[in-house]
C-alpha cells in the first residue's frame, strides 16, 4: 500500500495536470475575448495556466490525503 506522501504527490500531479488544461482553455478564452493587453500572449496564457495548476494541485493533494486518512481509519 502506498504511503501518505506518495498519495500526496499523486494528487498534486493529477491536480496540476487538470489545472494546466483548465488554464489553457480559460486563458485562451480570455485572450480571444479581451486580447493580451500589455503583457503579451505568452505571458498572459502562461500566468493563467500556472495559477490554475497551482490551485488545482494544492487542493487535489489535500483532498487525496484527507481521503487516504479516512480510508485508513475505516479499515481499523
Automatic annotation (TrEMBL):
The keyword tRNA-binding does not apply. Belongs to the MGR2 family. The chain crosses the membrane at residues 12-32, 44-66. GO terms for cellular component: TIM23 mitochondrial import inner membrane translocase complex. Pfam families: Romo1. It comes from the Eukaryota. It comes from Pneumocystis murina (strain B123). Its main location: membrane. This is Protein mgr2. It is found in: Membrane. GO terms for biological process: protein import into mitochondrial matrix; protein insertion into mitochondrial inner membrane. Keywords: Membrane, Transmembrane, Transmembrane helix. InterPro entries: Romo1/Mgr2. The keyword NADP does not apply.
Amino acid at each position: 500500500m502506498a504511503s501518505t506522501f506518495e498519495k500526496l504527490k499523486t494528487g498534486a500531479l493529477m491536480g496540476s495536470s487538470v489545472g494546466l488544461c483548465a488554464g489553457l482553455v480559460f486563458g485562451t478564452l480570455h485572450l480571444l475575448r479581451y486580447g493580451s493587453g500589455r503583457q503579451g500572449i505568452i505571458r498572459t496564457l502562461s500566468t493563467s495556466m500556472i495559477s490554475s495548476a497551482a490551485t488545482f494541485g494544492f487542493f487535489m493533494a489535500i483532498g487525496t490525503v484527507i481521503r487516504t486518512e479516512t480510508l485508513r481509519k475505516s479499515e481499523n
